Amino acid sequence: MQRIMNNPDNIVDEMLKGFLKAHSDIVESTENGRVVKAKDIPEGKVGVVTGGGSGHKPAFVGYVGKNMCDAAAVGEICSSPTAAAFLDACKVADQGKGVACLYGNYSGDNMNVKMAVKMAKKAGITVKTVVANDDVASAPKDQREKRRGVAGEVLMWKVGGAKAAKGGDLDEVIAAAQKAIDNTRSVGIGLTPCTLPAVGHPNFEIKEGTMEVGIGHHGEPGIEVCPLESANEMAKRMVDVVVPDYPFVEGDEVVVLVSGLGATPVMELYVLYDEIDRLLTEKGIKTHKAYVGNYFTSLEMMGATLTVMKLDDELKELIDMPAYSMGLKQD
Amino acid sequence: MQRIMNNPDNIVDEMLKGFLKAHSDIVESTENGRVVKAKDIPEGKVGVVTGGGSGHKPAFVGYVGKNMCDAAAVGEICSSPTAAAFLDACKVADQGKGVACLYGNYSGDNMNVKMAVKMAKKAGITVKTVVANDDVASAPKDQREKRRGVAGEVLMWKVGGAKAAKGGDLDEVIAAAQKAIDNTRSVGIGLTPCTLPAVGHPNFEIKEGTMEVGIGHHGEPGIEVCPLESANEMAKRMVDVVVPDYPFVEGDEVVVLVSGLGATPVMELYVLYDEIDRLLTEKGIKTHKAYVGNYFTSLEMMGATLTVMKLDDELKELIDMPAYSMGLKQD
């Protein structure tokens, strides 16, 4: 295992120490060592919180910052943060206006957020939630509540963070973030597995010369294993999963996010994006804004995800708002 | 080879098409399909140009933008751009105030830039150059002119771009960029090789359980192959190569840049940075600003580079200036 680490049991804490030092202009530590908070949160706003397992950088702490999330709870690698961490994230983000907890649909996160919401209520803090479920491949369309949250979460945080920064009240922030994820669909293609530092060998297999369509960020099985295709064929396959599911139609304006899974060279993401944009344009779907890069990863997995979000006037304004976090900076 | 591509012969052009579409708020195409230029270059400033082979994203086109480079020439994967591309980059960046061409010390780049400077002179454009040579491991200290340019180039572009944006004349921009690279030292540790798309297999080898200290971005041999070490041991090894070479001493203020080589999980870069910062602090060296992430990569190589730059008042002001490019955004 060719990796940069000390004792794998300490990797999350050591990562957080380095992260907090490197980005001391954006984030700061809190009493709970597994909660990162934004520096200089503007007074009187609704708090925006997220959290999730480690190994998905920039997610989740990389999206704490100006006009983004106010705090994030940090879990072990590929494991949910504790309920206590979610609670403490809510506490540091709360300013008496309530907290929007925007997270992904995984059983551990669901359970721990639910407990944190109850504990927060007892502490006098109102927490409302949006659960991201943008991953088309993880369940049929009539069972959207079973779908996982993947890179679409980044757009949900962007929208929710911007709405709160603009002075939206708790219900307005929740409504905007919910609309963002309701308007968003994603799919991933995995080319290689990843290795958890504490395990030392891949916890699933993708055979050389094959690819797994619909793979999850933790190697959850996809919808099809097929022979490795060209970039253009992969683009078509991804567009063909994502577009009809929402469905995105002629005349729609969208945000497109192409994220690497960690180890795929970034130049290849641009090759993929070029064809995705061509296919969407051919369908009369107009890309208002594109994000291409490593936005939501799985350690050193190879592969990519495609995320498409349908815009309306409100979402466009919120997406276009400046933001400043480690993982997403825009003027 | 688990990669996202079509015909490997077209990968650079396809990447550029996707890059230009995705970042149309920052960059635009030019008549020369292998030259990318910044959008909305402020009038009357000295031009700042770079260029290099592909496969090192964000380098080189990712550092074209506001207060950064005005144009970049693009080569094939791991190959220098042509002299014509360097010339055309100078032409689109020139506003009659001259052009600073800031590039890395590789034989192909040296030859092609030299030709481009001559051709530019004939066309009435004054081009002066700074050649980055920050890679300590690539030649002894008394032969600095033989050393390669690596991730220190990012700091050279940041400083040169800022100086030009502040209205510096050509000699002042060249002097600032030269000082930036003179004050900068880097070293890399490679953990896995990379595979050029057109070749299909790694063009060099790093055995499992070993690491190569001082490796170059194209797999150029380093100074030592040794058994794989812990993150803290790697940090010490890197600091012990970089610090005594300049030398950085107690009381110095520095910029630290830790870049992944492509496929190393970003969380591991923070683990490495945490220990690097501790070692520098122990030596009385103060980090004014840190950059941690994938700033200068080699396709899907695993490993990392450490770059340290000594600051003075001028360099600090230029490093702190806002910038907006795909690879480096700061408020």
SSE order and pairing:
The structure is a homodimer of 331-residue chains.
Chain A: H1 11-22, E1 27-29, E2 35-38, E3 47-54, E4 65-66, E5 71-77, H2 83-93, E6 99-104, H3 107-122, E7 127-132, H4 152-165, H5 170-182, E8 184-192, E9 210-213, E10 224-227, H6 231-245, E11 253-260, H7 266-282, E12 286-293, E13 302-310, H8 313-320, E14 323-325, E15 329-330
Parallel strand pairs in A: 3-5, 3-6, 6-7, 11-12
Antiparallel strand pairs in A: 1-2, 2-5, 4-14, 8-9, 8-13, 9-10, 11-13, 14-15
Verbal overview:
Chains A, B: Residues 7-328 form the DhaK domain. Chains A, B: InterPro entries: DhaK_dom (IPR004006), Dihydroxyacetone_Kinase (IPR050861). Chains A, B: GO terms for molecular function: kinase activity. The structure is a homodimer of 331-residue chains. By secondary structure, the first copy, chain A, is of the alpha/beta class. The first copy, chain A, has two domains: 8-183 and 320-330, Rossmann fold; 184-312, Hypothetical Protein Tm841, Chain: A,domain 3. Chain A contains eight helices and 15 strands. Chain A has helices at residues 11-22, 83-93, 107-122, 152-165, 170-182, 231-245, 266-282, 313-320; strands at residues 27-29, 35-38, 47-54, 65-66, 71-77, 99-104, 127-132, 184-192, 210-213, 224-227, 253-260, 286-293, 302-310, 323-325, 329-330. In chain A, the strands form three sheets. A six-stranded mixed beta sheet of chain A has the order 1-2-5-3-6-7, with helices on both faces. In chain A, helix 2 (83-93) packs across helix 3 (107-122), helix 4 packs antiparallel against helix 5 and helix 6 packs across helix 7. Chain A is globular and about 55 Å long.
